[in-house]
């Protein structure tokens, strides 16, 4: 339900910018092909499918999907499918990559290939979008990084934040509000991450990243609830109104991501950012709505 | 609603073990006195109140609460109130301490005092209880450590787990299931915590902590959902059925705690474990039901 609401909010924007093409690596999978067919039907994107073409045709037949609606390109291995999908983007024929039935690392490797890849100036990072029921939060929440970067140092933190701010801007948000999440609001030398977050907040005030607000350290409650923040005497643009939740490491990011998917009815989508095109990640266990949401995110987000 | 359900599950056990006394440090606060009066009325515990007795009597009068129902002891400062409350427990006159209107650190300092404190053999740790709506989880979930220990090393991890296992056992659970939460299920030298969790799992198999199951590394979804675990081919007693969620550091623990309090309707209670008596933590912003739940936890959990 929430996935469909979240999707409906993105559709006008998608339809306003001309049909995008998504290049799917290792597409011979019923879940993947079903989502691609549905996304095409809804006008979210067109698809170029890389993989075992015979198998793709068979699966399409089983699903009652006309394979003629897709561009099909034979690739004998996952690595080959990933390279071909990446090169489709590099040649300007697609604006996003989608992971099919292969490892995320296979796609990342192809995307980062120095000669044939789609590297940009920043490193890659993961960003998830959550649309929570309105009683819990009043707008979409973007969480980074739950899946790619393990324990980012200061420079990598900056890149992850820049990736997320750029992505959220290409989704139509003029001035994204970034909360840097720690266990409390005061800088504390015993919690090194609070000092780094203090420094990032000052850098933002000094003009590091124009067109956004960055604030930390904040515990999650103060980032998403004015009421919680009030009991601690906090105010400012990010307080209780964060768009982007930056987690200090993969353990915190992943536990937040999983908590939102397991314990709430939030709609969720996920992409990898930082290359010249976003990489759409869906997993088998995602609901149909969540898969479409990830595809819509990937179709809307501009590469670097 | 969920707080009351969760409380109702604990009440028979509370009533079965004779009236407990809770010693409240810095009790001159309307929120604290209201919860104490309500908890007494429900038969959860009796209370000894340490603080500014004149003020306590005034606040009770304002609330329409008979101060004669409590034992009142004058203390001129927070530190003094904390010491007296701790010594009340040390002399066997109370079985739990409750934080009133003072810093948690003031109570911890008094509890850990080498001469007059209530130190036991292990270090202190925080444990929260969450009762989620049944559609999201089928039993209470205990999260540790969201508030006390910042980045525990291997030995401290063991102590935090032992504290939680003992506490949950004194709540009536015969064989607690402990999930060690990381970002994935495979050991990975790039994520040092996964190696430690692997080691803790092996230690448990070798008999380190009898009467419980310990399993990690696990991402949160595999700890609480059989369905999620199945897609990764996992099984075993902890999988999809965890009681205790052990987080690798305070950032992960705190973001999970805050996510559950902000984005779900879960009832929540919190205590500090590891001393000869539990320390009950409530905060002003807790709902009345959550405050009672924390008090009930503190009244039920046996000290070390």
Mean pLDDT of chain A: 94
- How is the biggest beta sheet of chain A arranged? 11 strands, mixed
Order of helices and strands of chain A: HEHEHEHEHEEHEHEHHEHEEH
**Given the helix and strand composition of chain A, which structural class is it?**
alpha/beta
Shape of chain A: globular
Strand content of chain A: 15-25%
Count every helix of chain A, treating DSSP H or I runs of 4 or more residues as helices: 11
Please list the strands of the largest sheet of chain A in the order they lie side by side: 3-2-1-4-11-10-5-6-9-7-8
Multimerization state: homodimer
Number of strands of chain A: 11
What is the helix fraction of residues of chain A, given as a range? 40-55%
Rg calculated over all Cα atoms of chain A: 19 Å
Give the uncertain stretches of chain A in residue-range form: none
Task: Show the largest interface.
Answer: A-B, 42 and 42 residues
Instruction: Report the span from N to C terminus of chain A.
Output: 32 Å
Which helices and strands appear, and what pairs or packs with what?
Two copies of one chain form a homodimer.
Chain A: H1 2-15, E1 21-25, H2 30-41, E2 46-51, H3 53-63, E3 71-74, H4 78-90, E4 96-99, H5 104-112, E5 125-131, E6 141-144, H6 154-170, E7 177-181, H7 192-205, E8 213-218, H8 220-224, H9 226-231, E9 244-246, H10 250-263, E10 267-273, E11 279-281, H11 288-300
Parallel strand pairs in A: 1-2, 1-4, 2-3, 4-11, 6-9, 7-8, 7-9
Antiparallel strand pairs in A: 5-6, 5-10, 10-11
Helix pairs in contact in A: 1-11, 2-11, 4-5
């Amino acid at each position: 339900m929430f996935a469909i609401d979240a999707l409906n909010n993105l559709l006008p924007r998608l339809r306003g910018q001309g049909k995008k093409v998504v290049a799917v690596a290792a597409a011979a999978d019923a879940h993947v092909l079903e989502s691609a067919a549905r996304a095409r039907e809804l006008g979210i994107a067109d698809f170029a499918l890389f993989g075992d073409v015979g198998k793709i045709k068979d699966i399409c037949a089983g699903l009652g999907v006309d394979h003629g609606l897709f561009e099909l390109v034979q690739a004998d291995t996952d690595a080959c499918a990933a390279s071909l999908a990446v090169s489709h983007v590099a040649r300007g024929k697609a604006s996003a990559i989608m992971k099919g039935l292969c490892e995320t690392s296979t796609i990342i490797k192809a995307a980062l290939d120095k000669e044939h890849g789609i590297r940009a100036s920043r490193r890659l990072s993961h960003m998830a979008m959550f649309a929570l029921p309105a009683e819990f939060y009043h707008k979409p929440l973007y969480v980074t990084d739950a899946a790619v970067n393990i324990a980012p140092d200061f420079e990598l933190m900056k890149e992850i934040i820049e990736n997320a701010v750029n992505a959220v801007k290409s989704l139509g948000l003029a001035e994204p509000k970034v909360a840097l999440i720690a266990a409390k609001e005061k800088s504390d030398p015993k919690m090194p991450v609070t000092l780094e977050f203090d420094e990032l907040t000052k850098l933002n005030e000094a003009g590091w990243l124009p067109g956004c607000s960055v604030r930390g350290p904040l515990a999650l409650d103060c980032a998403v609830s004015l009421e919680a923040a009030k009991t601690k005497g906090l105010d400012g643009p990010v307080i209780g109104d964060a768009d982007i939740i930056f987690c200090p490491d993969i353990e915190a990011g992943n536990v937040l991501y999983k908590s939102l998917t397991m314990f709430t009815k939030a709609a969720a989508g996920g992409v990898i950012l930082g290359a010249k095109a976003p990489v759409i990640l869906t997993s088998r266990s995602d609901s149909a709505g969540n898969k479409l949401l990830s595809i819509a995110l990937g179709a809307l987000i501009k590469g670097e």
